[in-house]
């Protein structure tokens, strides 16, 4: 159970780790670059897996760089790696300094910026459904509490052989509508 709690914490913090910490050893895959209409900026969407102090962290990230200076790249968004690339962020330029960043309705977002220099970044949700996003948050909180309660239950059972309380019930995961971003920008 302790291992499961550790895994839950590592995977829930992955996007934040990838944004907040410059890791010495990172690998990238699945890169897709989208230039701004005037060619001044390039937005890059890719998966990033890094060795960090606590083990390994992974996320899907969006970086924005001047096309004339790749060293000028800045992270503008990251999220937990979704189950499918259809749920990766999609970049749509609406003008030379206006970008829409489309993400799945239930994306677990680590960090995001709404502006970088003169580029305004508007976050949009595929299959936009605020009620489902609230359900995700409630489920994650209930699942975290269940993990804690189950750990306490196991510890109590070890300490007291006469302990007869039932194992805490696992919260039911809600069912959701599709939130794929596969058709954005096509």
Briefly, what is this?
The chain has 2 helices and 9 strands. The chain is of the alpha+beta class and 186 residues long. The protein has a 5-stranded antiparallel sheet with strand order 1-2-3-4-7. Strands 5-6-9-8 form a 4-stranded mixed sheet, with no helix packed on it.
Your description of this structure?
- This protein has helices at about 1-20, 130-160, and strands spanning about 25-35, 40-50, 55-65, 70-80, 90-95, 100-105, 110, 115, 120-125.
- With about 190 residues, it is an alpha+beta fold.
- It has a domain at about 1-130.
- A hairpin with a 2-residue loop joins strand 5 and strand 6 (about 100-105).
- Mean pLDDT is about 85; it is low at about 1-25.
List the helices and strands and how they pair.
Blueprint (H helix, E strand, L loop, with lengths): L1 H19 L4 E11 L5 E12 L2 E12 L2 E11 L10 E6 L2 E7 L4 E4 L2 E2 L2 E8 L3 H30 L27
Parallel strand pairs: 6-9
Antiparallel strand pairs: 1-2, 2-3, 3-4, 4-7, 5-6, 8-9
Helix pairs in contact: 1-2
